[in-house]
Amino acid sequence: MIREPLASPRGQGSDFDLAAQQLLEVRRRIEAFLDGRIRAAAEIDEGLATLWRITARSTEGGKLFRPALVMQSYAAYTGTAEVPEAVIELATATELLHLAFLTHDDVIDNDTMRRGVRNLLGSVEEIVGASEFDDERGTRLGQAAAILVGDLLLSEAHLRVARIDLPHPLRLRVLDAMERALSVSVAGEFSDVSLSVRPERPALSEVLSMSSNKTSAYTVLLPLELGLIAAGAEGVVDARLIAQFSDAAGLAFQLQDDLFGVFGDQHKLGKAPYSDIREGKFTALIALACGTSVWAELESLLGDPLLSETDGAKARDLIEASGSRAAVEQELAAQFARARSAAVAVGASGADGDRKLAEMLERLLMLLERRTS
After folding, report:
1. Backbone angles phi, psi at 130, to 5 degrees
2. What is the pTM of this model?
3. What is the rounded average pLDDT of the residues 45-74?
């Protein structure tokens, strides 16, 4: 089912609505890809077809933030309201990369819900067509399904780029950008798990570095880079400033997610309530709560896979009482200020493309500041 593209903040017109029709086209292409995989899989194995049906169901309704950023960076720099076929395909590949990460993240985080519906980990009975599996075997099967489908999605993202009608040097630069984003993101994900299981408490600086690596590279920097490569702006726009903007904006994005995961509307998030606490994730909120008067009680609740919603709410209240929520919100404001300074510096050259790009980056920050989920 076709869903509406990224909505404007607070119902107002947004620069990101400029590409609304193209975003709808990205959604159509994602759905066509998934429908095609279901049909092709049915000729190979009905079990594989079931995995694709569950994947298609759990990927409905995404905001398409990353594809929008690909197209908007291209449109802003070139000054066009329409983006060519190659850029729409780059945007589609970026969303497929995101879907691959989400599918693998569900395994890492042991999440059974995605966007308000059961994902592959939460659909074991549907996969096997029965309910005889015990929890251990069912978890193993769901994890295997998610890892394998995530691999196929990751492969398709690269195949999509390989098939785009781009000059060979541009294609190589796109693939290099994807490789860098993947490497940094994997480092961030691995660090996220490592910080949660090691015996010593990580420093806040370690947590912020992990959070930046986990989100900035593929949520902000990669989409910006792909749009600018396609626009011919590589080597013209200051790459250092784009990296600074992306690092700050991406870290802000992750800090928002950390806050939403504990204090946000759990129904809007489409995930199980208090999943970060249940998984024992060492977010900035937890790092800042360490050593406070509530830490002993809070620590006893972290990492409990059977954590009830009542105990989750108790942990939330302890985090609030520790003062870490206020401190993370202060850090969030600092990162937005750092991103805004980088955006201003992008436009300082006075060149028309740089100026329009800087204006788009500023509007992006306004959009991010108004996120609620």
Report:
1. -160, 175
2. 0.91
3. 93
